[in-house]
Specification:
By secondary structure, the chain is of the alpha/beta class. The chain folds into two domains: about 220 residues, TIM Barrel, CATH 3.20.20.60; about 30 residues. Helix content is about 40%, strand content about 15%. An eight-stranded parallel β-barrel has the order 1-2-3-4-5-6-7-8, surrounded by seven helices. Helix 9 links the parallel strand 6 and strand 7. Helix 2 packs across helix 4. The termini are far apart. The structure holds 3-methyl-2-oxobutanoic acid. The site of 3-methyl-2-oxobutanoic acid has 11 residues, from strand 6.
Length: about 260
Amino acid sequence: MPAKVTAPSLRTKRLEGIPIVCVTAYDVLSGALCDQAGVDVILVGDSVGNTVLGYSTTVPVTLDEMLHHVRAVRRGVDKALLVADLPFGTYEVSKEQALESSIALMKAGAEAVKLEGPYSEAIEHIVRAGIPVMGHVGMTPQSVHSFGGFRVQGRGDQATRVLEDAKVVMNAGAFAVVLELIPGELAASITQELEIPTIGIGAGSGCSGQIQVFHDIMGLSEKVHKHAKLYVNGREQMVKGLASYAEEVRSGEFPKPENTF
Ligand code: KIV
């Protein structure tokens, strides 16, 4: 039986060169499926805004919405490390605000929190309270309006900024850092320089692990992103299944006597 994954155990994986597998989840079912499949880290991402709540960005996601989804995922997860995103506006104001928001997520069942950007004081303060923090640099979706869209970061002169951000996050005490949408070569060199695991998304194979959005790899998103790969054509299969059900109900084919009490 696989052992419970913890924040410190990810450092061991990195040292042993074992790639870390991370996927997002938003409810008890997606959480349980990831856990059963042996995923190491399950992130209740603020991407819940796009994937489940119908927002066009993660910016509107609230702490209450995150708490609701963290509680649901918690009920389906046993072995994986459960990380929860601090949504936009719940950690930037002060380190005290960051800690209060983190405590709320931990009380809802998270075992670590993730925040975007080089917020060193907030990270230090949260870590001091006994809460493991995952950083997130590069393309940080909560800053989409500053970036002018979901664009690759760290090209050319920007590379130094991404490396510096990753170091700030590590030096503040984060146990791992997500590198999102940055060139593969840069991600590989950041991974070499840091002493904590790097978790890539659209950042190539040179990272210590990979994270993907559940809906993207299960074929539930409307489009297939370059950084993702379909492992199941979920949307197509579900629509087909639902259309067959509708047809059989309308034709009287379903339910049959064996479906009837
Ligand atoms: O919210 C999210 O899904 C994320 C991952 C893409 C890293 O932050």
